Amino acid sequence: MADVDRIPSDPLAWRPQTARPSRRPHPVVDPIMEPHWGGLRVIVHVERGTDDGARRCTVLDEAGEDVTGEEPEVVAAIREALDADDAVLDGYLTDQATRPGTQVSMLPVARRSGNIIMGHRMEADIAPPLDDDAPRPVAFVAVDVLRVDGQSLLDVPLLERKRLLDSLLEVGELVRVSPYTRPPVDAWLRSWRAAGFDGAVLKAANSRYRPGSETDEWTISRANPDRR
């Protein structure tokens, strides 16, 4: 894990933390699990302008390139969805969240009975994706929060960050919060794979966030273990 002293002081220089590459998943202590999202991994910065007070949003990809202009409707939705003056969010720009068969897993409260996990009622019996090649809108799916109202959360345990993230965003068509669960995970893993995900990410509930680093506290379990 990266040295704390090497973390850039400017959040705009932060890059996503990633699971250390491995051909086989390694044990993770006290894990939580979420779908392994496809799409573009991004860090989203939302802040109030110093001159007019308007909320501004900057979206940077894994390399630090500004991709804010690529999805203007999503950027506008993020600005409206955030219940804070400013925040730094880790997530994905992806159409997986709006594909048929995956939307049930994104609902913060499901209408049918299911497992109650971390304040969310989520269904384990997600329907397989429909055979539909129609283009789907890209949405932002938040998986972590790194800073809020000027306060760094990098040393806050992951599970606490997840709970805070749940309260920060008003979920809608273009802004989602990734579902997550605790063991046993087999039923959820099968359901997410059936819904079109290529696997899941297991993360230690107590893990901290070190921008730009690889960590052994996160691991990826794929449907095809030979993929990296």
CATH top-level class? Alpha Beta
Q: What separation lies between the terminal Cα atoms?
A: 20 Å
Mean pLDDT: 82
Number of helices: 3
Radius of gyration over all CA atoms, rounded: 17 Å
Total strands: the figure is 13
Question: Which regions have little confidence, pLDDT < 50, spanning 5+ residues?
Answer: 103-131
According to CATH, what is the topology?
A: D-amino Acid Aminotransferase, Chain A, domain 1
Helix content: 10-25%
Indicate the proportion of strand residues: 25-35%
The 3D shape can be described as globular
Give the helices and strands as they follow along the chain: EEEEHEEEEEHEHEEE
* CATH architectural type: 2-Layer Sandwich
The structure class reads alpha+beta
**Could you say how many structural domains there are in total?**
1
